[in-house]
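Rotation project, supervised by the postdoc (A.L.). Task for the rotation student: set up a whole-complex structure prediction and record inputs and outputs verbatim in this book. Inputs entered:
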Amino acid sequence: MSRGGLVLLLSAILPICLLMAVMLGAVALPASGVLGALTGLGTPDTRLALIVDYIRLPRALLTALVGALLAICGAAMQGLFRNPLADPSLIGVTAGASAGASLVIVFAGTLTGLAGLSLVSLGAFAGGTVAVMLVYRLATGPAGTSVATMLLAGIAIGAIAGSLTSLLEFYADNDMLRRISLWRMGGLDGANWPRVAVVAGVALVVFAVVPAQARALNALLLGESEARHLGVAVDAVKRRLVLIVAAGVGVSVAVAGAIAFVGLVVPHIVRLLIGPDHRWLLPASALAGAILLLVADTLARIVIAPTELPVGLLTALLGAPFFISLLRRRREYDL
Amino acid sequence: MTSANTLTVEALSVTLGGRTCLHDVSVDIRAGEVLAVIGPNGAGKSSLIHTVIGDHRLSAGQIGLAGRPLADYADRERACHIALLPQASALTFPFRVRDVVLLGRGPHASGARIDARIVEAACAATDVTHLMDRVYTQLSGGEKQRAQLARVLAQIWRAEDAGARLLLLDEPVAALDLGHQQQIMTRVRAFARDGVAVMIVLHDITLAARHADQMLALRDGAVIAQGTPAEVVTPAHLQQLFDIQARVIAHPASGTPVVLHA
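Outputs recorded:
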């Protein structure tokens, strides 16, 4: 498939998925009514308009933004680490965010309702940011930032954050335990307009900065000194990408919990289709990530409606078989 | 201007990790000239090449490119003048050969049309035209080396992109068969004739003597000998460099020194 063709195709599929995400759910809405509510035309149906405005639309937008953020950040990390198996959690974001969220759930567990929900998000974001800062500081010496050290530091910080989370779970009561484990599975049921606004703000920065590093990332795949010899300011690019990915993944994890596999698998699928050139890989991954998460979240809402499955369950369920098939054909793919 | 040196290395010393790996090395390369660097493993040949492109800090001496101190060049500007082919490459992503070579055009803003033409020409120069649409990771070691060489040549392909051009090659023919060794060395020579200064690390001393204008022999970071191939390639120097007994005869056709192992 041609590279431009894929980007065009994905750009065409995304609005359809958005529309489907708004239409489908515990109550199926007719396409004409949804389009009418979205555009403000046609006969107003108050009940339908309420569902669209307050529930479905913010959720669909949040889902698309989170999916796009996770996928583009995953693609950037895989390029930066020159490792197709890297994903954003590698630099400790997810583990740190889990620890932060668990801390809030256990110690501020009495604060429920809307305030409690956003406190958990703040805890997750703070935890993710602290973890990345530690990883980055550990890997940065007078000679610059070592990507290999960053990988190992990510494992170490991730392990510490993991045992902190386990310790919190040990002390948590049954209700807290359930909330921690639900949070970990990921879910977009907390979607509302303020959250969409926050995530859209961060996404705007990520989508502006990350694709601008595409050429540098291509050169980095040759090796760090080769990239430097091609005139790339390697350390500045690394710092920029780590910070921006921390913000992008941090905010995604904060609003949607730990959603597995989107950041890992989506860039893989895209790379299989159009190759590793970041100028195309980054935008195509963002689009494909939005589509995958929209499909997964729509399924999560309708398979056992009116109860919702955690979306993280479905992304893993959709992602893992693909990943296994990828491992089986790693020879031709040259992992 | 015509006789100006592209590269001037004066009394260069470099210390890496507490170990002196280059000591008091001075060398000049003019546009169009090929300098071959020889010496045993760990002699500082690669360190010299990497110091010239700015990877290592100098502990003494200076390096000038086209009459300006190397340190004055910004990364991007330097990349328009100097290209380096490393010993090995870490590329493990499935780029097509065409895309790998195109990476060499990264520092320039010459436009997609011109870049595509340069990529074609550079691929032809290193005999990888038939591999251009193959995936890099599936090539053999020698084919990868030639693709990387095409990338490096593309980086400093045109005289109009940068006045002074310097090509640094670290064992470019180590993985190549005899036919491609000959072909690549001939291409490097032709590239030099186009006004590029070339510094090339070679283990095959006969091959180096055949294609170089000047040679530099290093051992333990110090210069053992320096000059024309005939001056450098002598049994005494080979003894000093490699602790071997060797005979040197003149090539029947070119008259350049040929090393015979005792």
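Student's summary: Chain B is about 35% helix and 30% strand.
Supervisor addendum: The mean pLDDT of chain B is 90.
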